[in-house]
Amino acid sequence: MQYERAAGAAGPPAGTQRLALLVIKPVPVPELGGDPVPHIVRRLAAAGIECRVATTQPNQPAAALVREALACGPPPDLVVAAGGDGTHGPVAAALAEASAGATSHGDSDAGPAENTQPGARTVPLALIPLGTFNNFARSLGIPRQIDAALDVIAAGHSRAVDAGRVNGRLFFEVAGAGWDATLFPAGESLKRGNVAGMLTAVRSIFRFQAGEIVLLLDGARRVASRTPTVVVANGPYFGSSFAVAPTSRLDDGLLTVTLFEGFGKADLLAYFASVAEGHARPDPRVVSHRAARVEVLSPPTLPAHADGEPIGSLATAFEAVPRALTIFTPLPQPPSAALRSTARWSIAQPTGSREAQGATPSGPVTPEAEGIAGDAVTTGTPRPGSQTMRWKVPPRPAPDADAERTDR
């Protein structure tokens, strides 16, 4: 792979350019004449960024391309991931893992950029949305329009964001354990044309029996629920861009845990469908908590997934990884009034958590504390660490007209 500069592209004088690895899934973009690479390379060159282009292939997934680039020669100044969530997530995970490898072991709570070994540096990430839903980019406020996303990169504003970890896997959207995790193997088998695997997965879907699930939040608080699944969110959006955890933030050092008390399988599917279509109604059986660590005490084994990828039986706790990654984002804007939740909330705030240390406001959750504009309907008496809130859920965005963009 060589660094490329588009013919005729104007940019800063030689020697002042930054070098970028552009990891891109090969999807056509009709408004750019099909292949978007020349346009992206030209725009970045005009901003003083020269690109080494790496195209994902079945035998060259996005994460492997990033690891190879970081291992061979001097690392790039930034990595640009162009694709959907199926590209953005693995690239982000590879960079976060590399950053974690560069950090010293003296302070596990420090972010990679703050506590690195001598000579080590982290590589920031930039996202260009080319997928259908682009949940990770949307959570960060990155525009769907390619040129607007390139403007964000050229502006150079960045921030540290969190990840989640389970079974040794990093996730940036949502992970979970329980019945919903049995759905993903069927979808994966269907995509690969594996009929036998799909039938096996379908049988698992119907055989799964929900019972009481007992959680331990931040090592201090037990929560028991007869829920068919445990949804653990790092960001607000998942799947077909529905707001599964609308008030989740990517920079508070916490995960949002959502339980569906007394739901059956049909209830859960109906609820997810209503959220996806933007007409979910408040349901007191949907309860959310926040914690940095979520351990499932029982049952002993549950199927699990991370960002929609099956990861086998749950073997570890879900953990927040604060400041896992530095990413280019737009300058902060006033919060959208559209983002709403239907869940009841409580927050676990153990001593030493980022909330307890003042990273985010403690006490009752309010629209202001969450960075959410609009009117909340609260029930019960507010008390530190817990408040019941009911919101409307925003409609999901319409997918791009370009039906070829299938990278989620």
TrEMBL record:
<keyword id="KW-0808">Transferase</keyword>
<keyword id="KW-0547">Nucleotide-binding</keyword>
<feature type="domain" description="DAGKc">
    <location>
        <begin position="15"/>
        <end position="170"/>
    </location>
</feature>
<dbReference type="GO" id="GO:0016301">
    <property type="term" value="F:kinase activity"/>
</dbReference>
<keyword id="KW-0444">Lipid biosynthesis</keyword>
<keyword id="KW-0067">ATP-binding</keyword>
<feature type="compositionally biased region" description="Polar residues">
    <location>
        <begin position="378"/>
        <end position="389"/>
    </location>
</feature>
<comment type="similarity">
    <text>Belongs to the diacylglycerol/lipid kinase family.</text>
</comment>
<feature type="region of interest" description="Disordered">
    <location>
        <begin position="347"/>
        <end position="408"/>
    </location>
</feature>
<keyword id="KW-0443">Lipid metabolism</keyword>
<feature type="region of interest" description="Disordered">
    <location>
        <begin position="98"/>
        <end position="117"/>
    </location>
</feature>
<dbReference type="InterPro" id="IPR050187">
    <property type="entry name" value="Lipid_Phosphate_FormReg"/>
</dbReference>
<protein>
    <recommendedName>
        <fullName>DAGKc domain-containing protein</fullName>
    </recommendedName>
</protein>
<dbReference type="InterPro" id="IPR016064">
    <property type="entry name" value="NAD/diacylglycerol_kinase_sf"/>
</dbReference>
<dbReference type="Pfam" id="PF19279">
    <property type="entry name" value="YegS_C"/>
</dbReference>
<keyword id="KW-0418">Kinase</keyword>
<dbReference type="InterPro" id="IPR001206">
    <property type="entry name" value="Diacylglycerol_kinase_cat_dom"/>
</dbReference>
<dbReference type="InterPro" id="IPR045540">
    <property type="entry name" value="YegS/DAGK_C"/>
</dbReference>
<dbReference type="InterPro" id="IPR017438">
    <property type="entry name" value="ATP-NAD_kinase_N"/>
</dbReference>
<dbReference type="GO" id="GO:0008654">
    <property type="term" value="P:phospholipid biosynthetic process"/>
</dbReference>
<keyword id="KW-0594">Phospholipid biosynthesis</keyword>
<dbReference type="GO" id="GO:0005524">
    <property type="term" value="F:ATP binding"/>
</dbReference>
<dbReference type="Pfam" id="PF00781">
    <property type="entry name" value="DAGK_cat"/>
</dbReference>
<keyword id="KW-1208">Phospholipid metabolism</keyword>
